[in-house]
Design brief:
The complex is a heterodimer of chains A (about 200) and B (about 290). In chain A, about 65% of the residues lie in helices and about 0% in strands. Chain A is an all-alpha fold and about 200 residues long. Chain A has two domains: about 100 residues, Fumarate Reductase Iron-sulfur Protein, Chain B, domain 2 (Orthogonal Bundle); about 90 residues, no CATH class. The radius of gyration of chain A is 20 Å and the shape is globular. Chain A starts with 9 loop residues before the first helix and ends with a helix. With about 290 residues, chain B is an alpha/beta fold. In chain B, the strands form two sheets. A four-stranded parallel β-sheet of chain B has the order 2-1-3-4. In chain B, helix 1 packs across helix 13, helix 2 crosses helix 3 and helix 6 crosses helix 8. The longest helix of chain B has 17 residues. In chain B, about 60% of the residues are buried. At the A-B interface, helix 7, helix 8, helix 9, helix 10 and helix 11 of A face helix 2, helix 3, helix 9 and helix 10 of B.
């Protein structure tokens, strides 16, 4: 995307465009770059990529740029882009799709903490059928701490622990900390759904 | 009258007070909230980000359990749970093959007809019927809430007929006005607080919350009111951090809408556990002589 002249080759673009359209259900060829999505995106500025630019990357067949950019990881799924899109394109669905495509291709997440939070959430939910904050956070903090320690980021780990302890103390003071573990009876149904998801 | 109820994980953990308040307030409005048996987590944003099948299948199991109650309507207070459940219901109505694939794993099959309502829709029906006015006797004079909707009450990734203005919704204002409060007009009512990014992408989330807090303060609000436990928790628990980082001195209590209604109904704030907020929520009520 750095070149000032757009390169377009239908044979390169078509497979990527078709894959994203099929998986996300979004008619992204309808995008005419009006940038209403860009104006409303709450994370576009910090991500350095706005929804219209993400769609353009896909239309130009730039798989690497489309999968590996901060918008995919910073998207908060607020659905502002899609609500305002005159062509009803939900770019938030596209970021979800690209994230899943990246995972399938074993691409390293640009924001590992975001990936770890979502996977920890799903692990905790799959375990007891409900998301227990204390369990989900324990899995998440362990995952991120191990990764960051391996990278020698000791200060990041300490800062994170201090931050969480402060929040935890405040929550405990106000009796907002819930320590019990909620679990459902019919966990086998949840396990069956998880299994089916894995095999699809 | 009985109505099906899905509290969601948050109302069984850090936002237990909201669960208590929902039950108290709806009981006073003549509705018994019947929690559906053995409900599971809806998967929230994590499922939609990571697995398209589970994002539909997890709430679908709850729809099956809700159908088994035989009740015509289910109330879901959390915006994320509400959004995911409604998306699942509408997606499955249009995709019989997916519905069959999910039903094959479930004891209670999904039957598509139960009405999925947000807490706001259910409350607005009570404003319209005049039942809220009968119960909400104490006027909340001097309370100037910034009504905070967040993302998922009015914006969906699929076509959903939203019964309010998606850019400038008025539902919460309607409820607040029925209680005698004076909601402020402001710009950030449907902006995102960052949801779980307060944990995983904290800088981004703090920036988003600073815009919300600053505008609420600038517009003369003396509190924020929310229906979503995730929005409420974020703007409450991280407010001090946001204020310090972005130079906003004022702190605003972040009420659940049920707290304002309960107060107006004369329910004891301690019974509603209003003292469990991170930013003190009792002081303003005392200052305004509402308790």
């Amino acid at each position: 995307m750095s070149s000032s002249v757009l390169q377009y080759e239908a044979a390169v673009s078509q497979p990527l465009v078709e894959e994203v359209m099929k998986r996300s259900g979004q008619n992204l060829v309808a995008c005419y770059q009006c940038r209403r999505c860009a104006a409303g995106c709450p994370v576009g500025e910090e991500a350095g990529v706005t929804p219209d630019q993400l769609i353009r990357m896909i239309l130009l067949g730039d798989r690497e740029a489309a999968v590996n950019n901060l918008l995919v990881w910073k998207c908060v799924a607020c659905y502002t882009c899609g609500t305002r899109c005159p062509n009803n394109i939900q770019t938030a669905r596209i970021t979800e799709t690209l994230k899943q495509m990246g995972k399938k291709a074993h691409a390293a997440p640009l924001l590992p903490r975001v990936a770890d939070f979502h996977s920890s959430f799903m692990a905790a939910t799959g375990h007891f059928g409900r998301f227990n904050e204390i369990e989900g956070m324990a899995i998440y903090e362990t995952k991120t701490a191990v990764k960051e320690l391996l990278k020698g980021k000791l200060k990041a780990v300490i800062d994170e622990v201090i931050g969480q302890l402060k929040l935890g103390a405040e929550m405990t003071k106000k009796k907002r900390m819930h320590v019990g573990l909620d679990r459902i009876k019919n966990r086998s149904e949840i396990k069956a759904l998880y299994k089916k998801a894995k095999n699809r | 009258m009985e109505i099906a109820y899905y509290p969601g994980c948050s109302l069984h953990a850090s936002s237990q007070l909201y669960d208590i308040q929902c039950k108290l307030v709806f009981r006073n409005l003549g509705m018994e909230l019947k929690e559906i048996e053995d409900w599971n987590c809806c998967g929230a944003t994590a499922a939609s980000k990571t697995d398209d099948f589970l994002a539909i299948a997890l709430p679908a199991r709850n729809l099956g359990l809700a159908a088994a109650t035989g009740l015509p309507e289910i109330i879901i207070p959390c915006s994320s749970c509400y959004s995911r459940t409604l998306i699942s219901q509408k997606t499955l109505a249009a995709d019989p093959a997916l519905k069959d694939a999910i039903n094959a794993e479930l004891g209670h099959k999904i039957e598509g007809s139960i009405k999925v309502s947000s807490i706001l829709e259910a409350l607005l029906a009570k404003v319209k019927s005049g039942e809220l006015a009968k119960q909400a006797v104490k006027k909340l004079e001097g309370l100037k809430p910034a009504c905070y909707y967040g993302c998922l009450l009015t914006r969906f990734p699929i076509d959903v007929a939203v019964p309010d203005d998606v850019e400038n919704p008025q539902g919460m204002e309607t409820v607040c006005e029925a209680l005698g409060a004076e909601p402020v007009d402001w710009n950030y009512k449907t902006d995102c607080c960052g949801a779980s990014s307060s944990i995983s992408d904290a800088e981004q989330s703090l920036l988003l919350m600073s815009r919300i807090l600053r505008d609420a303060v600038d517009r003369g609000a003396n509190c924020i009111v929310a229906t979503c436990p995730l929005c409420q928790f974020n703007v409450d628990a991280y407010q001090d951090q946001v204020g310090k980082r972005y130079g906003i001195k004022k702190r605003l209590p972040v009420y659940f809408i049920t707290e304002l209604i309960g107060l107006s109904m004369g329910i004891d704030p301690l019974e509603m556990q209003v003292d469990r907020h991170i930013v003190d929520a009792m002081g303003l009520l005392k200052e305004l002589k509402l308790i």
